[in-house]
Amino acid sequence: MHILGNILIFIILVVLVYKIGSVYMKWSDDKRFKKRLQDEIRKQKEED
Asked: How many separate domains does the chain show?
């Protein structure tokens, strides 16, 4: 019973870390994407 509880806590921790990690990756990708978008817009303005 005690071991099962530890396994359950371990699984919950892994899931939480995975969720936070994926959210963080998405957030950093969004930031990088927005920066690239701004660079593209700036290039377009310079060309015009």
From this structure: 1
Calpha distance 9→6 (Å, rounded):
5
Geometric angle at alpha carbon 29, from 44 and 27, rounded to 5°:
120
Q: 1-48, pLDDT tens digit by residue? A: 688 999 999 999 999 999 999 999 998 999 999 999 999 999 999 987
Q: Alpha-carbon distance 29 to 27, whole Å? A: 5
Q: Which domain holds residue 44?
A: 1-48
What single-letter amino acid sits at 1?
M
Q: Per the confidence metrics, is the pTM higher than 0.70?
A: no
Question: Residue 13 and residue 26: Cα distance in Å, rounded?
Answer: 20
